[in-house]
C-alpha cells in the first residue's frame, strides 16, 4: 500500500512539473510574438485647390492652320512672289509679295515625270474681302483684277498710284462690286509697272485664288462668345479662315501702329505662313 502511494505520488509530481514547463513555454512564446499592427484607415486624396477665375483672359497669338484645299481651285500655278519683267523697276531685296498661304502641288504625268506647281489661296467669309500685298516700289502704278472661275471680270482697278513709302498695303473691294458667292472660287491678280512708258513689257505680278465659305455653327458660336477682336483673329486663324484673320489684324495695326502686342500678333500670323521677312515692314494706308 505504501509502495503504491509512493508511485502515485511520483506520477503526480512528474505530471505537475511537465504542466508547469508547458505553461511557461506558452507564456514566453506569447510575449515574444510581434503583435499584428492595427490597419491604418485610408485617407481621401487631397483635392486640388481651384483657382479663382480671372476677369480677363489674354488673347493667344494667332497661328494659321492650313485647311484642306477646297474644290474648284485653279489648275494654273499661283504666284506669291513677284514674277515678270524687272527692266522698268529698281532692284529690291524683298520682292513684291502677296500675303497669302501657299501649298506645293506635285502632278505625275503619263511619262512618269512629275511637275511642280504652287497653289496660292485662302478662305474668307466676307462678301467683299480685302487683299494684302507687300509693295517694295515707290514709283509707278498698280493694277488689281478679280475674276470668277470662268475668267469673267468681277472687278478691276487699273490706276492704283504707288506711294512714296514702301510697305504692306490693303486693297479693298468697293460696295459696287457684286458680293462673292459662297462655295465659288475667284482668281485675283496684282500687277505693278514702275515705268508707265514701257507698256509693252510684262508687269511684275502675283496671283492666286480665294473662296468664300460659310462658318460652321459651332465656330460661329465661338466667335459670338467673345468681344475681343484679338481673340476673334486667333479663332479665324486656327480654323483656316485666312483673309478674315489677316484683315482684322491689319486694320487693328493701321489704327494702332505703336501697339507692340499687335505687332507681335502680326509677326506670329505671318510667321505661320512662312512670311517672317514681311512682318518687319510697316503698313501703309492706301
Describe what this molecule looks like in 3D.
With 286 residues, the protein is α+β, with helices and mostly antiparallel strands. It has a domain at 79-278: Immunoglobulin-like, CATH 2.60.40. The chain has 5 helices and 10 strands. Strands 1, 3, 4, 6, 7, 9 and 10 form a 7-stranded mixed β-sheet that branches. A hairpin with a 5-residue loop joins strand 3 (102-108) and strand 4 (114-124). It is globular.
Summarize the structure.
The chain has 286 residues and is of the alpha+beta class. The protein has helices at 2-32, 217-224, 229-238, 242-255, 260-271; strands at 79-83, 97-98, 102-108, 114-124, 130-135, 141-147, 153-161, 167-172, 185-193, 204-212. It has a domain at 79-278: Immunoglobulin-like.
What is the molecular shape? Answer: globular
CATH architecture of one domain: Sandwich
- CATH C-level class of one domain is Mainly Beta
| Rg, alpha carbons | 41 Å
CATH fold label of one domain: Immunoglobulin-like
The helical percent reads: 25-40%
Tell me how many strands there are.
10
State the major sheet.
7 strands, mixed
Q: Which regions are unreliable across 5 or more consecutive residues at pLDDT < 50? A: 1-57
Number of helices: 5
- Give the termini distance in whole angstroms: 143 Å
Q: Please trace the helix and strand order, writing H or E for each element.
A: HEEEEEEEEEEHHHH
Task: Calculate the mean pLDDT score and round it.
Answer: 82
**Beta-strand fraction estimate:** 15-25%
Classify the secondary structure makeup into a structural class: alpha+beta
Amino acid at each position: 500500500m505504501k509502495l503504491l502511494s509512493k508511485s502515485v505520488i511520483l506520477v503526480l509530481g512528474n505530471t505537475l512539473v511537465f504542466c508547469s514547463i508547458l505553461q511557461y513555454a506558452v507564456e514566453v512564446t506569447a510575449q515574444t510574438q510581434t503583435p499584428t499592427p492595427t490597419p491604418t484607415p485610408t485617407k481621401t486624396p487631397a483635392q486640388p485647390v481651384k483657382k479663382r477665375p480671372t476677369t480677363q483672359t489674354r488673347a493667344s497669338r494667332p497661328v494659321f492652320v492650313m485647311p484642306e484645299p477646297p474644290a474648284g481651285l485653279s489648275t494654273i500655278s499661283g504666284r506669291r512672289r513677284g514674277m515678270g519683267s524687272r527692266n522698268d523697276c529698281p532692284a529690291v531685296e524683298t520682292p513684291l509679295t502677296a500675303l497669302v498661304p501657299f501649298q506645293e502641288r506635285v502632278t505625275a504625268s503619263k511619262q512618269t515625270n512629275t511637275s511642280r506647281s504652287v497653289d496660292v489661296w485662302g478662305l474668307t467669309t466676307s462678301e467683299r474681302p480685302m487683299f494684302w500685298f507687300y509693295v517694295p516700289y515707290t514709283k509707278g502704278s498698280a493694277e488689281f483684277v478679280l475674276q470668277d472661275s470662268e475668267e469673267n471680270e468681277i472687278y478691276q482697278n487699273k490706276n492704283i498710284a504707288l506711294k512714296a513709302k514702301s510697305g504692306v498695303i490693303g486693297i479693298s473691294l468697293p460696295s459696287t462690286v457684286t458680293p462673292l458667292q459662297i462655295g465659288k472660287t475667284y482668281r485675283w491678280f496684282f500687277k505693278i509697272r514702275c515705268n508707265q512708258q514701257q507698256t509693252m513689257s510684262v508687269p511684275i505680278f502675283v496671283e492666286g485664288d480665294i473662296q468664300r465659305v460659310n462658318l460652321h455653327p459651332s465656330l460661329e458660336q465661338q466667335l459670338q462668345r467673345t468681344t475681343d477682336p484679338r481673340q476673334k483673329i486667333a479663332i479665324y486663324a486656327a480654323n483656316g479662315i485666312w483673309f478674315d484673320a489677316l484683315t482684322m489684324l491689319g486694320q487693328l495695326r493701321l489704327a494702332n501702329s505703336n501697339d507692340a502686342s499687335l505687332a507681335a500678333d502680326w509677326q506670329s500670323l505671318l510667321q505661320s505662313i512662312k512670311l517672317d521677312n514681311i512682318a518687319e515692314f510697316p503698313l501703309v494706308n492706301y
